[in-house]
Design goal:
Strand order of the largest sheet: 8-7-9
Structural class: alpha+beta
Number of domains: 2
Oligomer: single chain
GO molecular function: zinc ion binding
Number of helices: 7
InterPro entries: TRIM45/56/19-like, Znf-RING_euk, Znf_B-box, Znf_RING, Znf_RING/FYVE/PHD, Znf_RING_CS
Helix content: 25-40%
Keywords: Metal-binding, Zinc, Zinc-finger
């Protein structure tokens, strides 16, 4: 199977639109796509077909079923999980584009307000409060999302760190 790892100088891109990911959703085969691109693919694949319970990945053609099968196909893209690792390394466009990593692993999409440089995680306001109170993490350097937006070197360092550790699923 060919890998669909498309990257520009400033980060990974969606293999469908070839732009930076916008809310990357991950299929069971580990390929990720912008939520809107994935929904467009789902709409195209399910057109004129009733009772389809899966789609084929646009990259590897492996079947992928949404977690809740009785939902309308117009909602399927939102049923696939957000790729939190990929979301966290994307260049920050705005507060709304960056999600809290901790909340996201529990299936909740909450906008991030800050980023821990030590843990390399984006966090919402509630998670930041807890993080700052924990004995082990109270001295960690926290950047606001705005600071991260203004300093692309922080983003590039995160990309390099994650690439070296081999944790990127695109």
């Amino acid at each position: 199977m060919a890998a669909a790892k498309i990257e520009t100088d400033d980060g990974p891109c969606c293999p469908i639109c070839l732009e930076h990911f916008n809310l990357p959703r991950q299929l069971p085969c580990a390929h990720s796509f912008c939520e809107k691109c994935l929904q467009s693919h789902i709409t195209t694949q399910t057109a004129n077909i009733t009772k389809l319970s899966y789609i084929k990945c646009p990259v590897c053609r492996n079947p992928a079923s949404p977690s809740i099968k009785d939902r309308p196909t117009s909602e399927w893209a939102t049923l696939f999980p957000v790729n939190t690792v990929l979301q966290s390394i994307l260049p920050a466009k705005s507060k709304v584009d960056r999600l809290c990593d901790a909340c996201n692993t529990e299936g909740t999409t909450v906008p991030a307000e800050g980023f821990c440089v030590v843990c390399k995680e984006a966090m919402c306001g509630d998670c930041l409060k807890v993080h700052r109170k924990q004995k082990i993490s109270k001295d960690h350097t926290i950047l606001s999302v705005e600071e991260l937006d203004c300093n692309p070197e922080h983003e590039q360092q995160r990309v390099r760190t994650l690439q070296i550790s081999g944790k990127i699923l695109i």
